[in-house]
Write a structure and sequence with these properties.
Elements (H helix, E strand, L loop, with lengths): L2 H15 L37 H4 L8 E2 L5 E2 L3 E2 L10 E7 L2 E8 L2 E2 L3 E2 L4 H9 L7 E5 L13 E5 L10 E3 L3 E2 L3 E8 L6 E2 L4 E4 L4 E4 L3 E2 L15 E2 L1
Antiparallel strand pairs: 1-2, 3-13, 4-9, 4-12, 5-6, 5-7, 5-10, 5-11, 8-9, 14-15, 16-17
The protein binds calcium ion.
């Protein structure tokens, strides 16, 4: 085949590959380069590397809709509990031993703000709930008369709206002094389903919105009506 014929044949092959690319992943012409030493003078187009996708938009974003799909063009839908099966909230214990300073707790790669060694249960709850990766929690002390970091005390964190078996919070104790630090343990393994749309609706991936089956609607995360966006509330 003549050189021109090879070029023409290559263009036909390259054109056939074009439907594999989204319009935003081209421009096609920039993916084609000229190499005079190659038996095929026009290098074939290559798929853009994954690093060129908008990974940050695909990052986990709590219970609200976030982006998904190989190119992050689709949206995830809210998840929730299937109300027809029993399930437990995840509970973790924070055993802290210190007499001064602050600590923080990381959950799903997000670090909390500083928590004083003697912070109240209410302050710990507020600090955790500010995080984008944590919804609602309750925080209780084993002994409410002792500080959270008294060696004899234990802080219990119960996740009220993040469902399923959750990763354990990771403590950061570099600014904590006078004790042996923090150990976080799972006390109750979360067993609510965390299903897309609570398993009682269909996800609209263009909008990131659940379309609930007849007779079901959004919950507050606790089985009754609310703005979570899942479908686990039974009419
Ligand atoms: Ca359930």
């Amino acid at each position: 085949m003549s050189g021109l014929g090879e070029i023409a044949a290559h263009f036909v092959r390259a054109r056939a590959l074009r439907p594999l690319f989204r319009s935003s992943d081209r421009p096609f012409l920039t993916l084609v380069s000229y190499d005079p030493s190659s038996p095929f003078p026009l290098a074939p187009p290559r798929r853009p590397s994954p690093s060129s996708y908008h990974k940050s938009e695909c990052a986990y974003a709590g219970q609200t809709s976030s982006w998904t799909g190989h190119d992050c063009s689709l949206r995830t839908c809210p998840t929730g509990d299937d109300p027809y099966t029993d399930g437990a909230d995840e509970q973790q214990s924070v055993n802290c031993s210190a007499t001064a300073g602050t600590y923080s707790l990381s959950f799903r790669d997000e670090m909390s703000g500083d928590i004083a060694w003697d912070a109240t249960a209410a302050t710990i709850a507020t600090t955790l709930q500010v995080m984008s990766t944590i919804g609602n929690v309750t925080v209780e002390f084993f002994d409410s008369l002792l500080g959270g970091c008294a060696a004899e005390n234990t802080v219990y964190v119960t996740f009220k709206s993040d469902m399923g078996d959750l990763p354990t919070m990771v403590p950061s104790t570099a600014s904590l002094t006078g004790g042996t630090g923090i150990i976080v343990s799972e006390v109750v393994k979360g067993s609510k389903e965390n299903l897309e749309c609570g398993g009682l609706g269909m996800c609209n991936p263009e909008e990131g919105v659940c379309e609930c089956f007849d007779g079901y609607s959004s919950t507050n995360g606790y089985g009754v009506g609310g703005d979570r966006g899942d479908c686990g509330a039974v009419a």
